[in-house]
Write a structure and sequence with these properties.
GO terms for molecular function: glycosyltransferase activity. This protein has 16 helices and 16 strands. By secondary structure, it is α/β, with parallel strands linked by helices.
Length: about 400
């Protein structure tokens, strides 16, 4: 039995920024593969005719993306965000459901890929049509709930109250969500990765293509070049590290700490030739297959998608004891975990791991086994979501 779903996702790749919200794209694709009939609405702010962000004025209202249509109705998103984020939610809630009413049949389920803006903007629509609302918590609005502006926090609470289920990507987030709503409304629904998409068997060939020594230890960072992702700690330790035959690769998508990182590399023994600020998903999967260890010294997380991707590509993980990361990484077995912000621990762990490539290879193999044992794949994700949708509908 199938059912129809309206997926609401402000963060979804588009022609202007093909890297934003890739995990939401994976969610949509997994639901479609499970047989659900999915329409996708990914609103975009009104853009100025010239100046910064004016390129978004050229984005079409409907865009084909990997075989399905993505709709981009407009709403008002004023800056600075810290002052006007609540107003953005009001505009979303007013304008986007109006577009949905005119464009789509009423779905069986609304699946909001984030609590806010995606979920909040569809609350009234769901109540008006008696449609269950599912909202996904990836981390931000639970981890930083107390720091939210008062009006945004009220909107988050309203959304959580209205939701049929709050789908949390980690146990740690589920515990926080259960402080806001009855525990019966909270479900842990991990996202994941699909091992067959990562060309691990081509590791030697890819290293040759990329000019990487076959015996080198490759340490890979993937994420925003920001304080939250631990770039300042990496910048602190890089100039002091003496790791023969080690290559660092940095794949990012913006962030205020990019030049901090580049300056640190200039002062270090390592090359800055592998700092990338925008690569395709295919290229990223290749780097994950090439790498020996993913380095992610984050300060706050849910369960990072890139750790699932590292596990799928048999890459060990060096990360921190925050959020849901300890749920993903078995410390000492599939990776190594250190306290966030601890530069000494980061330096020591990098030195130890870079010098023991056999241990990294074994951790990587165990990581892939754990991914499959726990059902942390996109097909497993879709199966869990399908079951919860059906329970609500039946």
């Amino acid at each position: 039995m199938t059912h129809s779903v309206l997926a609401s996702a402000v963060n979804h790749p588009d022609a202007i920024n093909p890297y934003i919200g890739l995990f939401n794209q994976r969610i949509v694709q997994s639901l479609m593969r499970r047989g659900m009939d999915v329409d996708v609405v990914s609103p975009r702010p009104f853009a100025p005719p010239v100046g910064p962000h004016s390129e978004y004025s050229m984005l079409p209202t409907v865009e084909e993306w990997d075989g399905y249509g993505v709709h981009h109705p407009r709403f008002f998103y004023l800056l600075p965000k810290r002052l006007f984020y609540g107003r953005a939610g009001d505009s979303f809630a007013k304008r986007v459901p109006r577009y949905v009413e005119k464009t789509f049949d009423v779905p069986d389920v609304v699946h909001a890929c984030h609590i806010y803006l995606d979920g909040y903007g569809m609350v009234d629509y769901c109540e008006r049509h008696d449609v269950p609302l599912f909202v996904v918590s990836h981390g931000h609005f639970m981890n930083e709930y107390d720091e939210l502006a008062d009006d945004v926090r009220e909107k988050v609470d309203e959304t959580l109250d209205a939701a049929e289920k709050v789908l949390c990507v980690s146990d740690a987030l589920a515990e926080k969500a259960a402080r806001r709503v009855p525990r019966s409304k909270v479900e842990v629904v991990p996202i994941g990765a699909t091992p067959s998409r990562y060309p691990v068997e081509r590791k030697a060939e890819l290293r040759e293509e990329l000019g990487i020594d076959p015996d080198a230890t490759v340490a890979l960072f993937v994420g925003e070049f920001s304080e939250r992702k631990g770039i300042p700690e990496l910048a602190d330790v890089l100039p002091d590290l003496d790791l023969p035959n080690t290559e660092f690769v940095f794949v990012g998508h913006g962030g205020d700490e990019e030049w901090t990182l580049r300056r640190a590399l200039t002062s270090s023994r390592f090359s800055g030739r592998h700092v990338y600020t925008g690569i395709t998903s295919l290229a990223l999967r290749r780097w994950l297959a090439v790498a020996d260890v993913l380095v992610l010294p984050s300060h706050a997380e849910g369960r990072p998608t890139v750790i699932y991707e590292a596990m799928a590509s048999e890459t060990a993980v060096l990360s921190t004891t925050v959020g849901g990361i300890p749920e993903q990484v078995e410390d000492g077995e599939t990776g190594v975990l250190i306290p966030p912000g601890d530069t000494d621990a980061l330096r020591e762990a990098l030195t130890e791991l870079a010098g023991d490539r056999e241990r990294l290879l074994e951790m990587g193999r165990k990581g892939r086994e754990r991914l499959l044992e726990q059902g942390w794949t996109w097909d497993d994700h879709a199966e869990r979501v399908y079951r919860l949708h059906r329970e609500a509908l039946e």
